[in-house]
Protein backbone atom coordinates (compact mmCIF):
# COMPACT_ATOMS: atom_id res chain seq x y z
CA UNK A 1 0.00 0.00 0.00
CA UNK A 2 2.74 2.44 0.98
CA UNK A 3 4.65 1.63 -2.19
CA UNK A 4 1.54 2.46 -4.22
CA UNK A 5 1.17 5.76 -2.37
CA UNK A 6 4.80 6.61 -3.05
CA UNK A 7 4.39 5.76 -6.75
CA UNK A 8 1.23 7.85 -7.01
CA UNK A 9 3.11 10.80 -5.51
CA UNK A 10 5.74 10.65 -8.28
CA UNK A 11 3.36 9.79 -11.11
CA UNK A 12 2.00 13.33 -11.84
CA UNK A 13 5.53 14.68 -12.42
CA UNK A 14 6.37 11.65 -14.58
CA UNK A 15 3.22 12.16 -16.66
CA UNK A 16 3.93 15.87 -17.01
CA UNK A 17 7.44 15.21 -18.35
CA UNK A 18 6.09 12.63 -20.78
CA UNK A 19 3.40 14.94 -22.17
CA UNK A 20 5.72 17.94 -22.26
CA UNK A 21 8.47 16.23 -24.27
CA UNK A 22 5.97 14.77 -26.74
CA UNK A 23 4.32 18.16 -27.23
CA UNK A 24 7.69 19.82 -27.86
CA UNK A 25 8.46 17.32 -30.63
CA UNK A 26 5.06 17.83 -32.26
CA UNK A 27 5.46 21.60 -32.12
CA UNK A 28 8.94 21.47 -33.64
CA UNK A 29 7.83 19.21 -36.51
CA UNK A 30 4.86 21.45 -37.30
CA UNK A 31 6.93 24.66 -37.14
CA UNK A 32 10.32 23.45 -38.38
CA UNK A 33 12.44 26.43 -39.49
CA UNK A 34 14.47 26.36 -42.70
CA UNK A 35 17.93 24.77 -42.38
CA UNK A 36 16.79 22.77 -39.36
CA UNK A 37 16.55 18.97 -39.22
CA UNK A 38 14.96 16.54 -36.75
CA UNK A 39 16.29 13.01 -36.20
CA UNK A 40 14.44 10.57 -33.95
CA UNK A 41 16.90 7.78 -33.16
CA UNK A 42 16.22 4.27 -31.87
CA UNK A 43 17.87 0.86 -31.91
CA UNK A 44 15.45 -1.74 -33.14
CA UNK A 45 15.58 -5.19 -31.60
CA UNK A 46 18.22 -7.26 -33.38
CA UNK A 47 17.00 -9.17 -36.43
CA UNK A 48 17.47 -12.93 -36.17
CA UNK A 49 18.13 -14.50 -39.55
CA UNK A 50 15.80 -17.38 -40.46
CA UNK A 51 15.71 -19.85 -43.33
CA UNK A 52 12.79 -21.52 -45.02
CA UNK A 53 14.40 -24.90 -44.62
CA UNK A 54 17.04 -25.29 -41.96
CA UNK A 55 18.72 -27.95 -39.87
CA UNK A 56 17.64 -28.23 -36.24
CA UNK A 57 20.83 -26.76 -34.77
CA UNK A 58 20.28 -23.47 -36.62
CA UNK A 59 17.31 -22.75 -34.37
CA UNK A 60 19.67 -22.33 -31.41
CA UNK A 61 22.44 -20.51 -33.28
CA UNK A 62 20.74 -17.82 -35.31
CA UNK A 63 22.85 -15.04 -36.77
CA UNK A 64 21.75 -11.61 -35.52
CA UNK A 65 22.11 -8.16 -37.08
CA UNK A 66 21.81 -4.68 -35.61
CA UNK A 67 19.26 -2.26 -37.06
CA UNK A 68 19.45 1.40 -36.09
CA UNK A 69 16.40 3.45 -37.11
CA UNK A 70 16.29 7.21 -37.65
CA UNK A 71 13.05 8.99 -38.48
CA UNK A 72 14.14 12.20 -40.20
CA UNK A 73 12.10 15.38 -40.71
CA UNK A 74 13.46 18.12 -43.00
CA UNK A 75 12.39 20.69 -45.56
CA UNK A 76 11.86 19.52 -49.14
CA UNK A 77 14.44 20.06 -51.89
CA UNK A 78 13.09 20.72 -55.38
CA UNK A 79 15.82 18.80 -57.25
CA UNK A 80 15.59 15.75 -54.99
CA UNK A 81 12.00 15.61 -53.74
CA UNK A 82 10.20 17.21 -56.68
CA UNK A 83 8.72 19.95 -54.51
CA UNK A 84 10.18 23.09 -52.99
CA UNK A 85 9.86 24.34 -49.42
CA UNK A 86 10.05 27.93 -48.20
CA UNK A 87 9.30 29.79 -44.98
CA UNK A 88 6.01 31.04 -46.48
CA UNK A 89 4.98 27.64 -47.86
CA UNK A 90 6.82 24.95 -45.87
CA UNK A 91 6.85 21.38 -47.16
CA UNK A 92 8.20 18.92 -44.59
CA UNK A 93 9.65 15.63 -45.84
CA UNK A 94 9.80 12.56 -43.59
CA UNK A 95 12.32 9.81 -44.30
CA UNK A 96 13.30 6.57 -42.57
CA UNK A 97 17.07 6.14 -42.36
CA UNK A 98 18.45 2.69 -41.44
CA UNK A 99 21.95 1.53 -40.57
CA UNK A 100 22.35 -2.27 -40.72
CA UNK A 101 25.39 -4.02 -39.29
CA UNK A 102 26.63 -7.37 -37.95
CA UNK A 103 28.17 -5.38 -35.08
CA UNK A 104 25.91 -6.13 -32.11
CA UNK A 105 27.39 -3.63 -29.65
CA UNK A 106 24.85 -0.83 -29.31
CA UNK A 107 26.99 1.91 -27.80
CA UNK A 108 27.98 5.54 -28.23
CA UNK A 109 30.47 4.69 -31.00
CA UNK A 110 27.71 3.05 -33.04
CA UNK A 111 25.50 6.09 -32.45
CA UNK A 112 28.27 8.46 -33.59
CA UNK A 113 28.68 6.41 -36.76
CA UNK A 114 24.95 6.80 -37.44
CA UNK A 115 25.25 10.56 -36.90
CA UNK A 116 28.11 10.64 -39.38
CA UNK A 117 26.10 8.73 -42.00
CA UNK A 118 23.11 11.03 -41.51
CA UNK A 119 25.36 14.05 -42.07
CA UNK A 120 26.87 12.48 -45.21
CA UNK A 121 23.41 11.74 -46.58
CA UNK A 122 22.18 15.30 -45.99
CA UNK A 123 25.31 16.66 -47.68
CA UNK A 124 24.82 14.31 -50.64
CA UNK A 125 21.34 15.70 -51.34
CA UNK A 126 22.59 19.30 -50.84
CA UNK A 127 20.44 19.93 -47.77
CA UNK A 128 22.12 22.53 -45.58
CA UNK A 129 21.67 21.86 -41.86
CA UNK A 130 22.64 24.60 -39.44
CA UNK A 131 20.64 23.29 -36.49
CA UNK A 132 20.26 19.58 -35.69
CA UNK A 133 17.61 18.36 -33.24
CA UNK A 134 17.84 14.76 -32.02
CA UNK A 135 15.18 12.93 -30.01
CA UNK A 136 16.07 9.65 -28.32
CA UNK A 137 15.09 7.43 -25.43
CA UNK A 138 17.11 7.54 -22.22
CA UNK A 139 19.13 4.36 -22.74
CA UNK A 140 22.38 5.02 -20.92
CA UNK A 141 24.81 3.02 -23.05
CA UNK A 142 23.38 4.30 -26.34
CA UNK A 143 22.47 7.95 -25.82
CA UNK A 144 22.65 9.23 -22.22
CA UNK A 145 25.74 8.01 -20.39
CA UNK A 146 28.52 10.39 -19.33
CA UNK A 147 30.45 9.33 -22.45
CA UNK A 148 27.45 10.03 -24.72
CA UNK A 149 26.87 13.47 -23.21
CA UNK A 150 30.59 14.18 -23.22
CA UNK A 151 30.90 13.35 -26.91
CA UNK A 152 28.12 15.85 -27.67
CA UNK A 153 30.44 18.63 -26.50
CA UNK A 154 32.42 18.14 -29.73
CA UNK A 155 29.41 17.82 -32.04
CA UNK A 156 29.92 21.30 -33.51
CA UNK A 157 33.45 20.69 -34.88
CA UNK A 158 32.67 17.02 -35.63
CA UNK A 159 29.64 17.66 -37.86
CA UNK A 160 29.83 21.35 -38.72
CA UNK A 161 26.45 22.39 -37.32
CA UNK A 162 25.89 25.81 -35.73
CA UNK A 163 23.84 24.32 -32.90
CA UNK A 164 23.19 20.75 -31.84
CA UNK A 165 20.37 19.54 -29.59
CA UNK A 166 19.63 16.16 -28.06
CA UNK A 167 16.25 15.74 -26.41
CA UNK A 168 15.29 12.74 -24.30
CA UNK A 169 11.81 11.27 -24.00
CA UNK A 170 10.54 10.43 -20.54
CA UNK A 171 11.24 6.90 -19.32
CA UNK A 172 8.95 4.30 -20.95
CA UNK A 173 7.41 6.95 -23.23
CA UNK A 174 9.71 6.79 -26.27
CA UNK A 175 7.53 4.61 -28.49
CA UNK A 176 6.66 5.98 -31.90
CA UNK A 177 7.06 5.57 -35.68
CA UNK A 178 10.70 4.58 -35.21
CA UNK A 179 9.62 1.35 -33.49
CA UNK A 180 7.13 0.52 -36.24
CA UNK A 181 9.76 1.25 -38.91
CA UNK A 182 12.19 -1.29 -37.49
CA UNK A 183 9.48 -3.89 -36.96
CA UNK A 184 8.27 -3.50 -40.56
CA UNK A 185 11.74 -4.20 -41.98
CA UNK A 186 12.12 -7.39 -39.94
CA UNK A 187 8.60 -8.56 -40.76
CA UNK A 188 9.06 -8.08 -44.50
CA UNK A 189 12.38 -9.91 -44.39
CA UNK A 190 10.80 -12.89 -42.62
CA UNK A 191 7.89 -13.01 -45.08
CA UNK A 192 10.22 -12.92 -48.08
CA UNK A 193 12.34 -15.76 -46.65
CA UNK A 194 9.34 -17.95 -45.79
CA UNK A 195 7.93 -17.46 -49.30
CA UNK A 196 11.23 -18.57 -50.77
CA UNK A 197 11.83 -15.27 -52.55
CA UNK A 198 15.15 -14.54 -50.87
CA UNK A 199 17.80 -15.97 -48.58
CA UNK A 200 18.97 -13.89 -45.60
CA UNK A 201 21.82 -15.46 -43.66
CA UNK A 202 23.64 -12.38 -42.39
CA UNK A 203 23.50 -8.59 -42.11
CA UNK A 204 24.80 -8.07 -45.65
CA UNK A 205 21.98 -10.22 -47.06
CA UNK A 206 19.44 -8.21 -45.06
CA UNK A 207 20.87 -4.94 -46.39
CA UNK A 208 20.79 -6.24 -49.98
CA UNK A 209 17.16 -7.30 -49.59
CA UNK A 210 16.16 -3.92 -48.14
CA UNK A 211 18.00 -2.00 -50.86
CA UNK A 212 16.28 -3.95 -53.62
CA UNK A 213 12.76 -4.24 -52.21
CA UNK A 214 11.97 -1.69 -49.49
CA UNK A 215 13.38 1.69 -50.51
CA UNK A 216 10.08 3.05 -51.84
CA UNK A 217 7.22 2.88 -49.32
CA UNK A 218 3.61 2.25 -50.21
CA UNK A 219 2.44 4.57 -47.45
CA UNK A 220 2.09 8.31 -48.01
CA UNK A 221 3.16 9.03 -44.42
CA UNK A 222 6.82 9.30 -45.40
CA UNK A 223 8.80 9.85 -48.60
CA UNK A 224 11.42 7.08 -48.75
CA UNK A 225 13.59 4.62 -46.88
CA UNK A 226 17.37 5.06 -46.96
CA UNK A 227 19.69 2.17 -46.07
CA UNK A 228 23.35 2.12 -45.10
CA UNK A 229 25.57 -0.84 -44.21
CA UNK A 230 28.65 -1.03 -41.98
CA UNK A 231 30.67 -4.18 -41.42
CA UNK A 232 32.11 -3.11 -38.06
CA UNK A 233 32.38 0.00 -35.90
CA UNK A 234 35.81 1.51 -35.25
CA UNK A 235 36.20 1.94 -31.49
CA UNK A 236 39.94 2.62 -31.32
CA UNK A 237 39.45 6.36 -30.77
CA UNK A 238 36.65 6.13 -28.23
CA UNK A 239 36.63 8.92 -25.68
CA UNK A 240 35.72 8.42 -22.04
CA UNK A 241 34.54 11.19 -19.75
CA UNK A 242 34.18 11.79 -16.05
CA UNK A 243 30.68 11.52 -14.53
CA UNK A 244 28.10 14.25 -15.05
CA UNK A 245 25.98 15.03 -12.02
CA UNK A 246 22.33 13.88 -12.10
CA UNK A 247 22.44 13.03 -15.80
CA UNK A 248 19.30 10.88 -15.47
CA UNK A 249 17.24 14.03 -14.81
CA UNK A 250 18.47 15.74 -17.98
CA UNK A 251 15.99 15.79 -20.89
CA UNK A 252 17.63 18.42 -23.10
CA UNK A 253 21.27 18.95 -24.11
CA UNK A 254 22.29 21.90 -26.25
CA UNK A 255 25.67 22.97 -27.59
CA UNK A 256 26.87 25.75 -29.86
CA UNK A 257 30.54 25.84 -28.85
CA UNK A 258 33.28 23.25 -28.58
CA UNK A 259 33.83 21.33 -25.31
CA UNK A 260 30.74 22.73 -23.62
CA UNK A 261 27.13 21.63 -23.24
CA UNK A 262 24.08 23.34 -21.75
CA UNK A 263 21.57 21.06 -20.03
CA UNK A 264 18.06 21.47 -18.64
CA UNK A 265 15.41 19.26 -17.07
CA UNK A 266 13.05 19.56 -20.07
CA UNK A 267 13.08 20.80 -23.67
CA UNK A 268 11.33 23.86 -25.05
CA UNK A 269 10.35 24.62 -28.64
CA UNK A 270 7.12 26.50 -27.97
CA UNK A 271 7.97 29.82 -26.30
CA UNK A 272 8.60 32.96 -28.37
CA UNK A 273 12.34 32.97 -27.64
CA UNK A 274 13.04 29.29 -28.39
CA UNK A 275 11.06 29.46 -31.65
CA UNK A 276 13.49 32.17 -32.77
CA UNK A 277 16.49 30.13 -31.64
CA UNK A 278 17.22 32.13 -28.48
CA UNK A 279 17.32 29.02 -26.30
CA UNK A 280 19.26 30.66 -23.48
CA UNK A 281 16.41 33.16 -23.00
CA UNK A 282 13.68 30.52 -22.69
CA UNK A 283 10.40 31.82 -21.23
CA UNK A 284 9.31 28.41 -19.89
CA UNK A 285 11.93 28.16 -17.16
CA UNK A 286 9.29 27.14 -14.62
CA UNK A 287 8.76 23.99 -16.68
CA UNK A 288 12.16 23.32 -18.23
CA UNK A 289 14.27 24.26 -15.21
CA UNK A 290 17.28 26.55 -15.11
CA UNK A 291 19.85 25.85 -17.82
CA UNK A 292 23.26 24.73 -16.57
CA UNK A 293 26.55 24.96 -18.43
CA UNK A 294 28.77 21.90 -18.17
CA UNK A 295 32.27 21.32 -19.53
CA UNK A 296 32.69 17.53 -19.77
CA UNK A 297 36.14 16.41 -18.70
CA UNK A 298 37.75 13.79 -20.90
CA UNK A 299 39.90 11.09 -19.32
CA UNK A 300 43.10 10.70 -21.34
CA UNK A 301 45.94 8.18 -21.09
CA UNK A 302 49.36 8.89 -22.61
CA UNK A 303 51.84 6.48 -21.00
CA UNK A 304 51.85 3.38 -18.88
CA UNK A 305 52.84 5.26 -15.72
CA UNK A 306 50.25 7.96 -16.31
CA UNK A 307 47.61 5.33 -16.99
CA UNK A 308 48.16 3.83 -13.54
CA UNK A 309 48.04 7.25 -11.89
CA UNK A 310 44.91 8.26 -13.77
CA UNK A 311 43.19 4.96 -13.05
CA UNK A 312 43.88 5.50 -9.35
CA UNK A 313 42.46 8.99 -9.61
CA UNK A 314 39.35 7.71 -11.37
CA UNK A 315 38.71 5.03 -8.78
CA UNK A 316 39.08 7.51 -5.90
CA UNK A 317 36.86 10.13 -7.46
CA UNK A 318 34.55 12.12 -5.16
CA UNK A 319 31.22 10.28 -5.12
CA UNK A 320 29.20 12.98 -3.37
CA UNK A 321 27.92 14.27 -6.71
CA UNK A 322 26.87 10.80 -7.83
CA UNK A 323 24.74 9.78 -4.85
CA UNK A 324 21.80 11.31 -3.03
CA UNK A 325 19.90 10.59 0.16
CA UNK A 326 18.31 7.09 0.11
CA UNK A 327 20.75 5.88 -2.57
CA UNK A 328 22.09 2.36 -2.03
CA UNK A 329 25.84 1.97 -2.66
CA UNK A 330 28.37 -0.83 -2.43
CA UNK A 331 31.94 -0.15 -1.27
CA UNK A 332 34.67 -2.65 -2.06
CA UNK A 333 36.41 -3.96 1.05
CA UNK A 334 39.49 -5.96 2.03
CA UNK A 335 37.45 -7.87 4.62
CA UNK A 336 37.99 -11.61 4.15
CA UNK A 337 34.32 -12.29 4.95
CA UNK A 338 32.83 -9.77 2.51
CA UNK A 339 33.56 -8.69 -1.05
CA UNK A 340 31.85 -5.34 -0.43
CA UNK A 341 29.86 -3.44 2.17
CA UNK A 342 26.28 -2.57 1.24
CA UNK A 343 24.93 0.66 2.72
CA UNK A 344 22.15 3.23 2.40
CA UNK A 345 22.94 6.95 2.30
CA UNK A 346 20.95 8.62 5.11
CA UNK A 347 22.72 12.00 5.23
CA UNK A 348 24.38 14.28 2.74
CA UNK A 349 28.15 14.72 2.65
CA UNK A 350 29.77 17.03 5.18
CA UNK A 351 33.23 18.07 6.40
CA UNK A 352 34.28 17.14 9.94
CA UNK A 353 35.05 20.07 12.24
CA UNK A 354 36.98 17.76 14.54
CA UNK A 355 38.18 14.17 14.71
CA UNK A 356 35.18 11.87 14.92
CA UNK A 357 34.42 8.17 15.39
CA UNK A 358 31.45 6.22 14.06
CA UNK A 359 29.43 3.46 15.70
CA UNK A 360 31.91 0.87 14.47
CA UNK A 361 34.94 2.42 16.17
CA UNK A 362 36.59 3.91 13.10
CA UNK A 363 38.16 7.35 13.76
CA UNK A 364 38.78 9.97 11.07
CA UNK A 365 40.78 13.23 11.21
CA UNK A 366 39.71 16.86 11.00
CA UNK A 367 38.63 18.30 7.60
CA UNK A 368 37.82 14.89 6.09
CA UNK A 369 34.74 14.89 3.86
CA UNK A 370 32.19 12.17 4.64
CA UNK A 371 28.73 10.90 3.89
CA UNK A 372 26.63 9.33 6.63
CA UNK A 373 25.12 5.99 5.61
CA UNK A 374 23.78 2.96 7.49
CA UNK A 375 25.06 -0.56 6.87
CA UNK A 376 23.04 -3.45 5.54
CA UNK A 377 23.75 -6.71 7.35
CA UNK A 378 23.20 -10.19 5.93
CA UNK A 379 20.24 -12.01 7.46
CA UNK A 380 21.59 -15.43 6.55
CA UNK A 381 24.81 -16.76 5.06
CA UNK A 382 22.74 -19.27 3.10
CA UNK A 383 20.87 -16.55 1.21
CA UNK A 384 23.20 -13.82 -0.14
CA UNK A 385 20.26 -11.71 -1.35
CA UNK A 386 18.62 -11.07 2.05
CA UNK A 387 19.76 -8.03 4.06
CA UNK A 388 18.46 -5.91 6.93
CA UNK A 389 19.22 -2.22 7.52
CA UNK A 390 21.03 -1.43 10.80
CA UNK A 391 19.32 1.88 11.63
CA UNK A 392 20.77 2.16 15.14
CA UNK A 393 24.40 2.29 13.99
CA UNK A 394 25.82 4.97 11.74
CA UNK A 395 29.02 4.78 9.74
CA UNK A 396 31.31 7.41 8.25
CA UNK A 397 32.47 6.84 4.67
CA UNK A 398 34.95 9.01 2.82
CA UNK A 399 33.25 10.54 -0.21
CA UNK A 400 36.54 10.01 -2.04
CA UNK A 401 36.26 6.23 -1.74
CA UNK A 402 37.89 3.57 -3.90
CA UNK A 403 35.72 1.15 -5.87
CA UNK A 404 32.34 2.61 -4.95
CA UNK A 405 29.34 1.47 -6.99
CA UNK A 406 25.95 3.19 -7.12
CA UNK A 407 23.18 0.60 -7.06
CA UNK A 408 19.98 2.62 -6.70
Which stretches are low in confidence, meaning pLDDT under 50 for 5 or more residues running?
A: 303-317, 402-408
Termini gap: 21 Å
Q: What is the share of helical residues?
A: 25-40%
Sheet with the most strands: spatial strand order:
6-3-2-1-4-5-8-9-10
The proportion of residues in beta strands is 25-35%
How many E strands?
A: 19
- Helical element count? 11
Write up what this structure looks like.
With 408 residues, the chain is α+β, with helices and mostly antiparallel strands. The protein is built from 11 helices and 19 strands. It has a 9-stranded mixed β-sheet, with helices on both faces. Strands 12, 13, 16, 17, 18 and 19 form a 6-stranded antiparallel β-sheet that branches. A hairpin with a 5-residue loop joins strand 14 (356-357) and strand 15. It is globular and about 75 Å long.
Short characterization:
It contains eleven helices and 19 strands. The protein is of the alpha+beta class.
Amino acid sequence: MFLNLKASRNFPAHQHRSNWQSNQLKSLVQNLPVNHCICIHDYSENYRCVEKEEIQSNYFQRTECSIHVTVMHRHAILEYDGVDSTEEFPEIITEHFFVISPDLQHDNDFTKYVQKKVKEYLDSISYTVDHMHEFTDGCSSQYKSRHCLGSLSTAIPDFGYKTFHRNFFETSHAKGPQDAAGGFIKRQADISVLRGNTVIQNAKDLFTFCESSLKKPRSALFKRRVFRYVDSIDRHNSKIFKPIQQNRQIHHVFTSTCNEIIVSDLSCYTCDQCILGNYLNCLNVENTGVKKTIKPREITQTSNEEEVAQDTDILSEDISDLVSINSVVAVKTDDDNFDYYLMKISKGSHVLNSAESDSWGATYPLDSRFSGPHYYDKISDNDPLKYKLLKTKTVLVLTKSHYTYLLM
